[in-house]
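User: Let's play a game. I give you a shape written as tokens, and you guess the letters that built it. Ready? Here's round one.
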């Protein structure tokens, strides 16, 4: 059994989790006069409207503004607007067969070395050569600090030993001869043989961090899994101490059979054969292109149990379906512990997370954009990162969490037993809402700011948005015929009671859910309400979802085999796709307003300019106070104020 180096809670550190410095984000959406204005709807029987998917590269434009390629356009933007800012390219997402939009990601730099928490993204319509939106988070006047200009130096082994000592992870000095260091991607080094990390490895790179808006010092940035969480730890080369530490694991303490049913407590299990989507998982779910498995392993997902709560899961088991690949297991409703239904739990989780992989692939979270796969069959992005789902995990309780490192390093989704509700233990492996919520954290983490950063959902509003997207997809993927926009949805109620769950059900009925954008406001001496913000964003997206599915033809189970060759795009699918596209376009650490504007930009880039569809999105935002003239964070009389606005663009008044 491996020795457990546990950080557990931040209170046990010798330093507190530090508050990082972030530059303000200048986010802009640009007018698009080159777009051909046209409707992309056609009448359907019974007065239903269909949404038509226009092939990539086939959308018409009136003229081409710029003949340069996307990268050159981004360079031109920087030269014209920020001529004195040094920058480096971090991600160039420009794939002809994937999208008509190229997203160019950059970071501010000093002497060719990235400055942390800075981000520049330029989104370009390739057909017209026009910039459609930009997000710039930089320090205008930053320089290398005087104290760091001298001859101070620190090798990586010394930095690792400083972490070991400062965080009291071990008393034994680590010798360089015991470590293996190899170059990987984006200036990262992979270190093997580290005794205090979960998998005996870590990732490291040398970058700058801002110590003030005008001063930066060089640090070693270490990403490591310690105990059950992933941390980004900064070691100052100047002071030779740990100066920043951030837990990048997303926790969810909330309340899981068919995808569109909430949990086993109120849903009958059903049986499916070969339910994978071929375009997303071409070799099925148990084949990674090299190995074929008959247990809960494959290219996208590895499900493993951790009933002993051991720090190492290498000796723990995958659940076998036998030579017939038959994952049909009995479920005992009166089992006292979650281990009594472990095989059924593994089958449920393996099915659900693989289906989520396939659906999000169809929605645009592909290999090129950093999705989770062992083998990337397109050759784009970085492979080697299927999601490891750990069930019956006795390392914790009353929780579930998703840890998502940069592209190429596997995420981990951990499901702990719940004991909040009286009676036998409850297993979140049977709570679809929790699993969808946690998996979505991985999607939003990889897409926001590009797949090679984990720093772009850390600010107050960004953290609330992150939770809100996860709740939205847990809601939207439960869309079925017996629900309407007013049906109250109380998430995670299989494992959580009313006291521990969300404050309001998700519903368009404002007497049931009264939340507005202005509810983000708080007293200056208090903390920002992350989960209140989560509920506000979630219900806004709920309004948009139902606005669209009530007007255009929808197909609740668009992902099942019989529905995979439709001649039209189901409206429920399109709303989710546009939300995912918005994640790709938004700046690092978005606000509610910049996230809204990114979604609106994504609507405008969907099949040309469909004014009716655009206005349905605006109407959803405006109902909950995030209309055209809503005002973001302002400080008045010791309060942080967010101001509602219920107006929509003038052009929408003929459609609403």
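Assistant: Ready! My guess for every position:
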């Amino acid at each position: 059994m491996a020795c457990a180096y546990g950080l557990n809670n931040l209170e046990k550190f010798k330093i507190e989790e530090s508050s990082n410095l972030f530059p303000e984000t200048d986010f802009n959406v640009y007018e698009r006069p080159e777009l051909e204005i046209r409707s992309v709807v056609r009448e359907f029987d019974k007065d239903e409207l269909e949404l038509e998917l226009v092939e990539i590269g086939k959308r018409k434009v009136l003229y081409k503004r710029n003949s340069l390629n996307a990268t050159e356009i981004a360079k031109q933007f920087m030269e014209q607007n920020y001529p004195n800012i040094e920058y480096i390219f971090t991600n160039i997402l420009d794939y002809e067969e994937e999208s008509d939009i190229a997203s160019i990601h950059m970071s501010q730099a000093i002497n060719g070395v990235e400055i942390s928490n800075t981000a520049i993204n330029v989104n370009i319509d390739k057909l017209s050569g026009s910039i459609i939106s930009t997000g710039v988070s930089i320090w205008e006047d930053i320089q290398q600090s005087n104290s760091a200009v001298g001859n101070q130096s620190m090798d990586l082994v010394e930095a690792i030993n400083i972490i070991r000592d400062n965080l009291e992870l071990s008393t034994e000095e680590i010798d360089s001869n015991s470590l293996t260091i190899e170059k990987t991607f984006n200036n990262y080094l992979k270190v093997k043989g580290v005794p205090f990390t979960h998998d005996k490895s870590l990732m490291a790179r040398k970058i700058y961090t801002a110590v003030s808006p005008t001063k930066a010092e060089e640090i070693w940035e270490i990403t490591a899994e310690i105990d059950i969480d992933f941390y980004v730890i900064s070691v100052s080369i100047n002071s030779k101490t740990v100066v920043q530490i951030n837990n990048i694991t997303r926790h969810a303490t909330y309340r899981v059979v068919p995808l569109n049913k909430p949990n086993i407590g109120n849903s009958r299990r059903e049986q499916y054969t070969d339910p994978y989507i071929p375009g997303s998982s071409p070799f099925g779910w148990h084949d990674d292109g090299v190995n074929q498995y008959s247990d809960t392993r494959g290219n996208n997902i590895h499900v493993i149990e951790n009933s002993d709560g051991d720090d190492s899961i290498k000796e723990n088991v995958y659940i076998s379906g036998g030579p017939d690949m038959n994952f049909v297991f009995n479920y005992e409703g009166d089992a006292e512990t979650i281990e009594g239904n472990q095989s059924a739990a593994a089958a449920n989780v393996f099915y659900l997370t693989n289906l989520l992989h396939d659906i999000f692939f169809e929605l645009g979270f592909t290999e090129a954009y950093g999705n989770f796969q062992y083998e990337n069959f397109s050759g784009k992005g970085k492979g080697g990162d299927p999601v490891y789902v750990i069930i019956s995990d006795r390392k914790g309780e009353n929780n579930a969490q998703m840890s998502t490192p940069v592209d190429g390093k596997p995420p981990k989704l951990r499901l702990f037993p719940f004991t909040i509700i009286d009676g036998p233990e409850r297993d979140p492996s049977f709570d679809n809402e929790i699993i969808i919520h946690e998996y979505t954290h991985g999607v939003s983490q990889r897409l926001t700011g590009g797949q090679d950063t984990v720093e772009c959902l850390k600010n107050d509003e960004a953290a609330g948005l992150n939770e809100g997207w996860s709740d939205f997809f847990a809601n939207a993927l439960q869309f079925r015929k017996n629900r309407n926009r007013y049906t109250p949805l109380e998430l995670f109620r299989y494992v959580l009671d009313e006291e521990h769950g969300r404050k309001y059900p998700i519903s368009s009925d404002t007497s049931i859910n009264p939340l507005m954008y202005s509810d983000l406001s708080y007293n200056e001496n208090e903390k920002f309400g992350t989960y209140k913000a989560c509920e506000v964003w979630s219900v806004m997206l709920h309004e948009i979802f139902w606005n669209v599915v009530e007007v255009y033809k929808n197909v609740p189970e668009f992902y099942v085999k019989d529905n995979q060759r439709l001649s039209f795009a189901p409206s429920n699918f399109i709303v989710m796709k546009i939300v995912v596209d918005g994640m790709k376009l938004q700046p690092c650490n978005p606000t509610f307003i910049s996230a809204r504007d990114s979604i609106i930009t994504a609507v405008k880039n969907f099949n040309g300019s469909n004014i009716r569809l655009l206005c349905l999105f605006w109407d959803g935002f405006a109902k909950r106070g995030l209309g055209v003239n809503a005002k973001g964070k302002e400080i008045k009389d010791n309060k942080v104020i967010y101001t509602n606005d219920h107006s929509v663009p003038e052009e929408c008044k003929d459609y609403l």
